[in-house]
Amino acid sequence: MISIGLRKALLALTLCTLATLAHALPRESRVPGGVALVSLPTGAGDRAPLATLNGKRLAVVEHEGRWLAVVGIPLDTAPGEHKVIVHTSEGKVEVPFRVAEKQYRTQHLTIKNQRLVTPKPEDLERIAAERRRSRQALQRFTDTMMPSFRFAAPVSGTRSDSYGARRILNGQPRQPHSGMDIAAPTGTPVLAPADGEVVEVGDFFFNGNTVFVDHGAGLVTMYCHLDRIDVKRGDRVKAGDMLGTVGATGRVTGPHLHWGVSLNGAMVDPALFLFD
To answer: Would you tell me how many other CB atoms lie within 10 Å of the CB of residue 223?
Structure first.
């Protein structure tokens, strides 16, 4: 296994290379759960135009002399034409883009603790409160930070392709999987893939020990099932800083990191943001 120091050095070197680019963009995949790079009308001058999708503000970057909206496409988006709304002093301009159909696989899992599949009534209030906290963290839009949209993986391990999979837990259908699972032994370091601010931490009913990091412009990442959390709310982190360690807390079948990426409030496929 690569040491923490070596991995941080390699990560810093790679990020320095990326920083020489005007903006490091995610890979485009115009499907539910993907990312669209939508070219916006010119005329905004040196200031990035305000753009939204379904009322959610979008990250807008300058790339090769044009403005691009970096659009996270919600997993439940219907295939077909959708519209980015550009807000100008003259009014609103609609910029259409198309979303293609994608079929995700079905995944059957067995959870030993049935309570984590079918919570007891006394668990429901806690779960509802934690969902509100998660939603608030994942829907942040911070103007003061503009992130790179390409990352190193936050942990060394075996990455699954389970994003978007329809999950059947102990024979019961549940919501599609909204992140990437990376299998690694308990205690494996989990490192911040980019600069940001820790905006929420805690022990959640389903997600176990969890950290949320705001990278700016509607890009927020989450790290679930940690064995240990090494940061607190309000901490500023740099790429390569340790967030915690891999564990098996919450609803799991074994030790791994569940890594989620939210873009304009949509949980999108983390693989689109990886450059390695």
So the answer is: 28
Closest CA to 189 of 242, 253, 130, 120: 242
Q: Write the pLDDT tens digit of every residue in 40-56.
A: 986 555 688 999 999 99
Gap between the Cα atoms of 152 and 18, Å rounded: 11
Question: Can you give the CATH number for the domain in which 115 is found?
Answer: 2.70.70.10
DSSP 3-state of 130? helix
User: How many domains is the chain partitioned into structurally?
Assistant: 2
DSSP assignment, residue 143?
T
Please say if the pLDDT value at position 16 is more than 80.
no
Give the chain's count of helices (H) and strands (E): 2, 20
In terms of DSSP H, where are the helices of 149-218?
A: none
Q: Which of 65, 99, 133 is the last residue of a domain?
A: 99
Say yes or no: 173 and 245 in one domain. yes
- 34, 67, 99: which is the final residue of a domain? 99
Structural domain including 53 reads 4-99
Question: Where does residue 125 rank: exposed (0-12), middle (13-18), buried (19+ CB within 10 A)?
Answer: exposed
State pTM to two decimals.
0.86
- Among 23, 25, 17, 4, residue whose Cα is nearest residue 240: 4
Q: How many CA atoms lie within 13 A of 232 on its CB side?
A: 0
Q: Is 215 helix (H, G, I), strand (E, B) or coil?
A: strand
32 DSSP 8-state letter? T
In angstroms, the first-to-last Cα distance of the chain is 17
Q: Note whether 41 and 34 are within 8 A (CB).
A: no
42 contacts: CB under 8 Å, gap ≥ 6:
66, 67
CB 163 within 8 A of CB 33: yes
